[in-house]
């Protein structure tokens, strides 16, 4: 029996933008996209969904908002149950863009399962950064059994205090000391998590590049993400499953 590899999938790349509230994900990604001839499909961050699109994802998000009584990090006191709901929302997001990926469109998610891994791991281990890192990695493994991880994850990072300032100015609010501390811990954990998987993450650090360079780096990463992508498999179906985008199986038996 000979196994003949088949050509790469014609799907588009799935890219996520990650980082703290107010770090500039939306601002820089929009700047980057302005410079692209072919525009990606942008999947809104959670706060942009306030007015509600119909559907299951929105309903799940509303129940998290209700249960967390206005907490900016959707903390309702049961971090693992919340983690599973957040992963379900991110699975729902993927479901809604599968037809776009299948026709070759680039899709950019404003936040993906890495935010879930970081925030929920910090809630599970508020005083133990190493345990939080291990749990964040484990939560990403769990998330990757719900849905494929993004092909590329762009982490925008900065001094946490600068991100806090920008988010406060934008939202005309003042974070409590506890919320600002949570953001500082999330900043460190995002950076440590990114370092565990350099193949998937690209990090733009606003402490060392200005906004023009940052937007240009992001543009180049988005532009370079397409082409020669592997098929997108249902993680829970194993390696012989058909691609969610092109419908093919990754290996074909030849006579
Ligand atoms: N280089 C910059 N110069 C001026 N304003 C900026 C810059 N970067 C970001 N901002 C502003 O800071 C605010 C926060 O940025 P942005 O909304 O992009 O953050 P974000 O990472 O998407 O945050 P969140 O996840 O909370 O939505 C916005 O009002 C944005 O316009
Ligand atoms: C996806 C996700 C989000 N959050 C938090 C992070 C923010 O404080 C809000 C949503 O804001 P956004 O920047 O507009 O997306 O929700 C979270 O705690 N866990 C998550 O998985």
UniProtKB/TrEMBL annotation:
Give every Thymidylate kinase-like domain span: 18-206
Q: Where is the signal peptide?
A: none
Q: Which domain of life is it from?
A: Bacteria
- GO: which molecular function terms? ATP binding; dTMP kinase activity
Q: Which reaction does it catalyse?
A: dTMP + ATP = dTDP + ADP
Identify one Pfam family in the record.
Thymidylate_kin
BP terms from Gene Ontology: dTDP biosynthetic process; dTTP biosynthetic process
The UniProt keywords, alphabetically, are: ATP-binding, Kinase, Nucleotide biosynthesis, Nucleotide-binding, Transferase
Recorded E.C. number(s)?
2.7.4.9
HAMAP family hit by this protein = Thymidylate_kinase
Function of the molecule: Phosphorylation of dTMP to form dTDP in both de novo and salvage pathways of dTTP synthesis.
According to its UniProt record, which protein family does this protein belong to? Belongs to the thymidylate kinase family.
The entry's protein name is: Thymidylate kinase
* Gene from which the chain derives: tmk
